[in-house]
Amino acid sequence: MFLVNSHSDYRQALDPRDAEILGLDAANAVERHLSFRENHAETPLVTLPALAAEIGVASIHIKDEGHRLGLGSFKALGGAYAVIRLVLDEASHRLGRTIDISELHSSTVREIAGTMTVACATDGNHGRSVAQGAQLVGARAAIFVHSGVSDERVAAIARFGAEMIRVDGTYDDSVRQAARIAEERGWTIVSDTSWPGYERIPGLVMQGYTALVREALRAMPQPPTHVFIQAGVGGIAAAVAGHMAIAFGDQRPTFIVVDPARAACLFETARAGHLVTVAHGAPTVMAMLECYEPSLVAWRILSRVADAFMTVDEDDAIAVMKRLADPTGNDPAIVAGESGGVGLAGLLGAIGDPAIRQALSLDGHSRIFLVNTEGATDPGKYEEIVGLSPSAVATQHTTGASR
């Protein structure tokens, strides 16, 4: 399914709150923060010239977030950043002066962090980031996971010392239970989705994602003309689209949001023109995108700066995982988890449909930007789908990457 943005807010200026969260000064602050992270390194921007030639576009660049901060997902940029910002804010409040990131590991700040508990609901990747952030600063973490989260993903979070709490039902059920229990116990919710009255912390999470956009734009020889990016609640899509809208103004690229057909909450919200919750049906293989209610802040941004919305099917996501693992020509192999290549699935779907291709002005001059949002965060599941282990695919990753 495909639709162009017809919302009354389309092409209006960003809400001032969102412009501040995703603006250039905020992005600079995120990159400064990352400079204090011991295992920080910019992730690769991978070019796929053979695939670009095959589908008839000028270039394809993929930001490979499977390498981010040892967590295998772009989410590493968001949850941990928000936790650290909250600890610094609390320390500043208690000590009566501004506490800089350079003081994060001081005994005084760690003592304050030790009195704090952060909590969140997760499909896997966001919870891992929150748990890592809590461990870094010496805070406690309680992570709520729904019944569809694999044992391997739960174990990957628990290794950071987090308390794991299983919730019957869907991701959205776990969001609600996390919020209720956190309020009862005085914990701080660090969610990557937002709702009325709860916007600042999800805004910090999204702010963390601007780092990958800054890195990619520095590495690209020319700005992109089109961006296809996958969405769960919409945080990554809104962060990329919002920051690019600020950076490029009227010259910003055409931006397409890609949903799983089985959890198309942003697509259906765009169709309705207001926030909607979609019904929970059969689970999607795109586990990190299995969300049924969009983030309030993300929709506020995307209603203004997304140009189109589309969905992809289960087979499309699986085919892209395999295509990236066994690429065209001399293109490098990329390890993309079940949700990682969904933006590329959207691009291929658009190219294959003459009406969509024309609507988006996709042609031989188009420069495409995509994000591989996750590597093999569940290696067993990855090998079951692709037929090769992540390490076997990674050994092919020898050409085409740039920093």
Strand order of the largest sheet: 1-10-9-8-11-3-2-12
Topology-level CATH name of the largest domain? Rossmann fold
CATH-derived architecture of the largest domain: 3-Layer(aba) Sandwich
Briefly, what CATH class of the largest domain?
Alpha Beta
Number of domains: 2
Could you give a short account of the major beta sheet?
A: 8 strands, mixed
**What is the 3D shape?**
globular
Q: From the structure provided, what is the oligomeric state, counting identical versus distinct chains?
A: single chain
What's the helical proportion of residues? 40-55%
Low-pLDDT parts are 399-403
The radius of gyration over CA amounts to: 20 Å
Mean pLDDT: 95
Strand content: 5-15%
Give a count of the beta strands, DSSP E runs of length 2 or more: 12
The succession of helices and strands, N to C, reads EHHEHEHHEHEHEHEHEHEHHEHHHEHHE
* Contiguous helical run count: 17
End-to-end gap: 35 Å
Give a written overview of the molecule.
- Helix content is 44%, strand content 14%.
- It has two domains: 2-73 and 201-402, Rossmann fold (3-Layer(aba) Sandwich), CATH 3.40.50; 79-191, 3-Layer(aba) Sandwich (Rossmann fold).
- Strand 8, helix 10 and strand 9 form a beta-alpha-beta unit.
- With 403 residues, it is an alpha/beta fold.
- The strands form two sheets. Strands 1-10-9-8-11-3-2-12 form an eight-stranded mixed beta sheet, with helices on both faces. A four-stranded parallel beta sheet has the order 6-5-4-7, with helices on both faces.
- The chain has helices at 16-22, 24-34, 49-55, 79-95, 107-113, 125-137, 151-158, 171-185, 200-219, 235-248, 265-272, 296-305, 314-325, 342-351, 354-359, 379-386, 390-394, and strands spanning 2-4, 45-47, 59-64, 117-122, 140-146, 163-167, 188-189, 226-230, 254-260, 308-312, 367-372, 401-402.
